[in-house]
Amino acid sequence: MRVEIIEVLSDNYAYLLIDDESRQALAVDPAEVSPVMIRAENMGISIVGILTTHKHWDHAGGNVEMAGKIPGLVVYGGRIDDVAACTEQLDDGAEVQLGKIKISALHTPGHTAGSTCYYCTEGDESQGVVFTGDTMFVGGCGRIFECTPADLYNSLMKLGQLPATTQVYVGHEYTLKNLEFATAQEAGNQDLQQFVEWAKEQRLQRKATVPSTMINEWRINPFLRSGGAEMKSICPGCAMPELVFAELRR
């Protein structure tokens, strides 16, 4: 199992999830078709389907075009998300196979009602990758549409239960802005401060800040950390972590 990172639009990430044995791939959120198809062609990889995290144009906007260029292309999306050109609507827990790679659909409402993340493993269930779209970012999370703050909080907690070593591939390069916000909330977080310096160096070198890992997100992401004692000052008197999260996301 291999993941190829492809920058599209102004700050989006598309990906190729590659099964090396079959030389086949699923494209994740190929909002711009040409750079994704060219990358696959240059690598000698055949794209056989699309994993769509949610219906917004900057993630699903390339589905129709790619489906028109690749006969028999399977387009996966959440059942209630009205994804463009979708041929296979997935419920929470549905599984898709790409060669030896198992892809599990995780319904993660919050950014949209039907937002879906994809947890992918090959053999070892503890060594996976997850594509989070606009549900979880490096050090942050997406805006809330069609849902409540509690919905998105619960979706982040769902992702947070994935193995600590899970590699996290997000939908946008928002990392430095997210970390600026996170630092304002937790100025004393040493893990966060160290990660800020790493992320700045990555961007100076025009390198991506993905993948993150789930354990890293537990250390630096204020939205994932909403239930911790360190975040209670954000919302004094809030008895539930969902309320702390809602205050952060406000």
Number of strands: 14
**Measured on Cα atoms, how large is the radius of gyration?**
18 Å
**Fraction of residues in β-strands:** 25-35%
H/I helix tally: 8
Which strand order spans the largest sheet, edge to edge or round the barrel? Answer: 1-2-3-4-5-6
Q: Biggest β-sheet, characterized?
A: 6 strands, mixed
Task: Please state the average pLDDT score.
Answer: 97
Low-confidence stretches are none
Which assembly state applies to the chains in this document? single chain
- Kindly report how far apart the N and C termini lie: 38 Å
Structural class: alpha/beta
Return the string of H and E elements.
EEEHEHHEEEEEEEEHEHHEHH
How are the elements arranged and paired?
Elements: E1 2-8, E2 12-19, E3 24-28, H1 33-43, E4 46-51, H2 57-60, H3 63-69, E5 74-78, E6 88-90, E7 95-98, E8 101-107, E9 116-121, E10 129-133, E11 136-137, E12 140-141, H4 149-160, E13 167-170, H5 175-185, H6 190-204, E14 212-213, H7 214-220, H8 241-249
Helix pairs in contact: 4-8, 5-6
Describe what is shown at a glance.
β8 and β9 (116-121) form a beta hairpin. It is built from 8 helices and 14 strands. By secondary structure, it is α/β, with parallel strands linked by helices.
